[in-house]
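Request from the bench team (R.T.):
"We need a structural guess for the complex before ordering more 2-acetamido-2-deoxy-beta-D-glucopyranose. Sequence and SMILES attached. Just send the tokens back."

Command: build protein-2-acetamido-2-deoxy-beta-D-glucopyranose structure.
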Amino acid sequence: MAIFKRVLTLASVLGAALAQGSTAYTDEGIIFQGLQEPTHGVSYGFVLPPTTATGATAQEFIGEIVAPVANQWVGVALGGQMADNLLLVAWPNANEIVFSPRYATGYIQPTPYAGPTITTLKQSFNSTHWSWVYRCQNCTTWSGGSFDTNSAPVFAWAISLTAVFDPSDPTSDFNEHDDFGFWGEITANAHSDDYNTYLNGGTVTSTPPTTTTTPPTTTSSSPTSTPSAPLASPTPYDYIVVGAGPGGLVTADRLSQAGKKVLLLERGGPSTGETGGRDVPPWANGTSLTRYDIPGEFQAMFGSSGPSYWFCSDINTFAGCLVGGGSSINGGLYWYPTDLDFSTDRGWPSSWSNHDQYTQALIQRLPSNDNTSPDGVRYLEEVFPVMSDILTPMGFQNITLNSNPNFKDHAFGYSAYNFQNGKRWGPVATYLQTAQPRSNFKMELYTVVTSVARNGSTITGVQTNNTAIGPNGFIPLNPNGRVILSAGSFGTPRILFQSGIGPSDMISLVQQNAEANAFLPPASDFIDLPVGFNVQDNPSINLMFTHPSINAYDNWANIWSDPVPADAAQYLKDQTGVFAMSSPRVNFWRATSGTDGITRYAQGTVRPGFDSVTTSYPYNASQVFSITTYLSTGVTSRGRVGLTSSELGAGALTNPWFTDPVDKSTIITVLEEIISAAAKVPNLTLITPDNTTTLTDYVNNYPTSSLGSNHWVGSCSIGQVVDENALVMNTTNLFVVDASIVPALMTGNPQGAIMSAAEQAVARILALPGGP
Ligand SMILES: Cc1cc2nc3c(=O)[nH]c(=O)nc-3n(C[C@H](O)[C@H](O)[C@H](O)COP(=O)(O)OP(=O)(O)OC[C@H]3O[C@@H](n4cnc5c(N)ncnc54)[C@H](O)[C@@H]3O)c2cc1C
Ligand SMILES: *[C@@H]1O[C@H](CO)[C@@H](O)[C@H](O)[C@H]1NC(C)=O
Ligand SMILES: *[C@@H]1O[C@H](CO)[C@@H](O)[C@H](O)[C@H]1NC(C)=O
Ligand SMILES: *[C@@H]1O[C@H](CO)[C@@H](O)[C@H](O)[C@H]1NC(C)=O
Ligand SMILES: *[C@@H]1O[C@H](CO)[C@@H](O)[C@H](O)[C@H]1NC(C)=O
Ligand SMILES: *[C@@H]1O[C@H](CO)[C@@H](O)[C@H](O)[C@H]1NC(C)=O
Ligand SMILES: *[C@@H]1O[C@H](CO)[C@@H](O)[C@H](O)[C@H]1NC(C)=O
Ligand SMILES: *[C@@H]1O[C@H](CO)[C@@H](O)[C@H](O)[C@H]1NC(C)=O
Ligand SMILES: *[C@@H]1O[C@H](CO)[C@@H](O)[C@H](O)[C@H]1NC(C)=O
Ligand SMILES: *[C@@H]1O[C@H](CO)[C@@H](O)[C@H](O)[C@H]1NC(C)=O
Ligand SMILES: *[C@@H]1O[C@H](CO)[C@@H](O)[C@H](O)[C@H]1NC(C)=O
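Reply to R.T.: structure attached below.
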């Protein structure tokens, strides 16, 4: 069973722990071997007697805790977890450090523990810190355990920003810690020939009077206070949500709102300034307006360097690996889903036909906005009248698109965004902000989930690369706890494969990877589900035109390093102007019937500027705009995603575009209609394809790398990989809530529909019996 395999591999914790092991430092004239923990500024130091010591002397040590005053109590576990280890807890009370050895048999309030003899050697207090040097005798072994005094055992620390219930009482109960972590205490380097000198120094010091407190010898009865979660981890959670993209943020917020203890794990780092991101363009230096905050930087998103984590280097297509996932790096187009998007025709279970209430819940949290500059002025809108001249004669109506989501045939209007206040907004500025202050919610960044650990069909926790939050990176679930994968269309399948869930060819690639193979369950527990199949992404084709009225905005060149000074200054002043919106200005939709009789929807997205122009005739680059035409709901082509090799990179295995030729002939029909309508607009010139290339040749020769739209859905389709409650089939407590459960392309760019689907999925998960 995976869970036993994991226990065996705990030996390798040593290597991992050493990577963040203790170091030597000097304080109070003593050379300690210990951890100077940076987040809370607390030092945990240890000195052991010489290795030649025997008897009782070999079972003691000198320790210290130096803590900024915000830390109201501090604990250490002389073993890598809270349960069944000797714990030492200390806090300041008036001008005295109160301390208490503790012990817990599980993740409950640790009770005072008789056995150790603890003596204060030095204590000091000033306006910023409290500090305590102590002698701990009979402390290297305890009931059922010990630590290795000549190696690098895993120790754990915990801090609380809230005082114990009765600071004057060493046996006081206290609430759960606010934070904790692990380190490798290199006891092999902690022995000192000066040990006795240090002990004596403790009695001749000139620092405040030494007090000796008798260690409590009573064992208190069962806790009367709120049961406490682990003092020194690994903390078990009710719900572990993997991935802080649109799916994961909605899910984690709703679960924590319902009072569940939620851990949100994200492999990348911060994005917007609000989340701690500092990836600021040079023209905004000194502000916290990052590339992820400034909508107008979208066209430069993948064209300038940033922190290494954000673009998912192990996925061979564009994706965002940071707080917000794709929503922090995408174009921001935001559409309320249509009824058809959640219909049985599109592959949804019939029980999802009540979907509108969930879309309304989303809209309440995150309304759309088609005029995103806070001054109300529309900037760079020259494409709108030109598009109106093309589309109105074709019978299109100019509407406020999100006011009538179901009107998607011959409709056009202003592009709608999830931006507010002139900034990228989305789930990061809404759902994450309500989750974050809750004490039952915690987000850990830079934490890659590689697999879920399971005992047969029941998930017991997640395996991560973060050894600071769980021994060997393992984080357990509470009894009846649940894991929700929201790692996106590529990330979620990869975790499933590494957990022995998916087609055998994918699991076999995992088996060929020695590191990942170690965490696979036994083959008899593999679950063969069509993970990675049934995938769709919109095929899309660009048309490029020139028109004398257009301002191509220098094709968005230099917006990172050297933007139009007046526009940059205006945005810095009050977040208004060109930079308050990303590049699209107009969207349109029409339904069309293919030669197979199937209705397919086509979407147009229109923006000033262009990708690549192919004409050999001269053209004025300052007057170019692009119409990107995608085929959406009704598309019949399907592809496959998965692992590209035993290195476990992820990507498309079969491209999902135009595998059905009727998709291609349908988009050609739509493009032909646009081109012939455009030909009637004075001074409008089609430059790509130009009049030397037929449209069919243009589409046939279109570079595959440009055909997609980054709107991948379906790799864990509802009804095929997950059931109507988003539960992974043949498991009891593993769920998927992200783009991958969406069984068919949505009518518009998908993030709105994904978040709305997450609203329904998380409501179902909370309602499902048997949970935490
Ligand atoms: C360039 C680009 C432009 C786009 N433009 C638009 C647009 O304008 N409008 C629109 O609606 N949609 C757009 N999209 C698509 C949209 O962003 C995605 O459909 C959406 O973000 C998917 O949401 P998700 O929650 O399923 O996954 P994601 O957004 O991919 O989020 C998954 C998260 O999980 C994390 N993760 C992955 N694996 C692990 C792991 N093993 N451990 C821990 N964390 C992990 C990732 O870092 C990421 O944060 C665009 C996408 C791209 C790439
Ligand atoms: C040492 O502690 C143990 C409990 O861990 C206790 O049983 C034992 O009596 C103690 N020994 C001494 C000498 O105090
Ligand atoms: C307060 O105490 C801490 C820890 O002992 C020490 O580092 C710091 O310098 C002290 N500050 C002052 C102002 O003495
Ligand atoms: C940003 O400003 C700081 C000083 O305020 C300067 O040191 C730094 O070089 C500037 N960075 C850029 C990219 O201009
Ligand atoms: C389109 O409709 C909007 C209101 O939704 C209006 O402001 C705009 O002037 C209209 N444009 C055209 C060209 O009809
Ligand atoms: C885990 O992986 C992430 C993403 O690659 C990385 O940022 C982080 O540093 C890794 N953590 C450890 C402890 O190796
Ligand atoms: C695994 O599950 C079985 C029941 O399916 C149970 O008997 C067994 O104790 C579990 N093992 C572990 C290690 O939890
Ligand atoms: C899933 O469970 C069903 C019974 O509930 C069983 O028939 C099927 O074989 C299982 N599938 C896999 C892949 O384990
Ligand atoms: C190109 O277009 C710009 C903007 O409309 C215009 O100012 C310029 O004169 C044009 N150049 C030529 C050569 O027509
Ligand atoms: C087309 O452009 C010419 C000059 O290039 C101009 O004189 C004419 O008014 C334009 N026609 C329209 C309908 O915009
Ligand atoms: C093709 O378009 C160019 C300008 O883009 C024009 O000069 C040329 O006359 C056109 N040729 C035909 C056959 O229409």
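Two things stood out. Residues 10-206 form a domain with the Immunoglobulin-like fold (CATH 2.60.40.1210). The longest helix spans residues 661-678.
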